[in-house]
Amino acid sequence: MPLNHAPLCELPKWGHWLETPSLIVALVPPGNLEVNITPTFELISTRFEIGRGIAAFNSDKLETYCAEPGGFDVVPSFSSYRSIETAGFFIVLAYKQPLASRILTEYSSDKDVELVPGQVQASAKGLRLAQAVRDFFTDRHVGGALYLESVATLIMEHVIRHRSNVSGQLKRVPDFLALKMLKTAIEYIQDNLQRELSLDGIAGVVGLSPFYFAHSFKATTGVPPYKYVLQCRIERAKALLREPSLSIAEIAYEVGFGNQSHMTTVFRKTLQVTPNVYRQHVK
User: Fold this and answer.
1) CATH second-level architecture of 172-283?
2) Into which CATH architecture does domain 16-162 fall?
3) What is the pLDDT of residues 50-81, one digit of tens each?
4) 118: which strand partners?
């Protein structure tokens, strides 16, 4: 994307690219970058190694630029970002509508809350959030789209606190889900384990925004939604492995892992055994 060319509106397919109906996430390897983009979505990036060069956020003037691990670069929709830089591994998140709008409006009391172009200072919390996205890639997509959307919601929350035009009081997140809502959400998850569950879909069943639901669910159950779904899939798989008539591949599909390899990876990580070894032990 040379700076003397017209800016791109869509994110180029950098690195390891993943896309859901609500979100695009890319893990980009180290290299020399020349970026010129005016996105149609809310664009947030974060680094694992220091990036240096020259950059301009919504400006014609390129200035000395340094991005540190645990910090965030923020490029709101229809603003501009131009840079020439040397970068280590970094992650790019593109928030599509209506996900971005829901998070922005539900988080703040301001009706017209917007992100502000620029950088969020590096922090330990920022680094933990970035690592949570990187874990999705290194752990072979454990957690699925629900995991990505949950972490992306928390990243957007962090950015709103530090890089938005919010002038009023930030909304307080509910501490716990009402019992009826919790029961409805759990029943929906249990009834739909075979499908690709999304944070937006589960939250919609109980009439809450993804942001409110993610926080309230964790406060109530002690685990984030994506982790609860993963636990449910593991428990369902363990029960089905007692049925000798079902192949491991069939069980993987039945509980929503998609394929046998994915289920084996999750079993090794969480139970320290493969599904086949587990089946032998419970015969």
Assistant:
1) Orthogonal Bundle (1.10)
2) Sandwich (2.60)
3) 999 999 999 989 999 999 999 999 999 999 99
4) 74
Any bridge partners for residue 63, and if so which? 55
232-282 residue pLDDT tens: 999 999 999 998 899 999 999 999 998 899 899 899 989 999 999 999 888
Provide the 3-class DSSP secondary structure of residue 15. Answer: coil
For 20-121, where are the E strands, in sequence order? 23-28, 31-37, 42-47, 51-57, 63-67, 72-75, 81-87, 90-95, 118-120
pLDDT of residue 109: 64
In the chain, where does the domain assigned CATH 1.10.10.60 lie?
172-283
Concatenating the DSSP letter of every residue in 208-274 gives: --HHHHHHHHHHHHSS-HHHHHHHHHHHHHHHHTT-TTS-HHHHHHHTT--SHHHHHHHHHHHHSS-
Burial per residue of 83-104, b for 16 or more beta-carbon CB atoms within 10 angstroms, e otherwise: bbbebbbbbbbbbbeebbebbb
C-alpha distances out from residue 45 to 6, 54, 108, 119, Å = 21, 16, 22, 10
Contact call for residues 26 and 13 (beta carbons, < 8 A):
yes
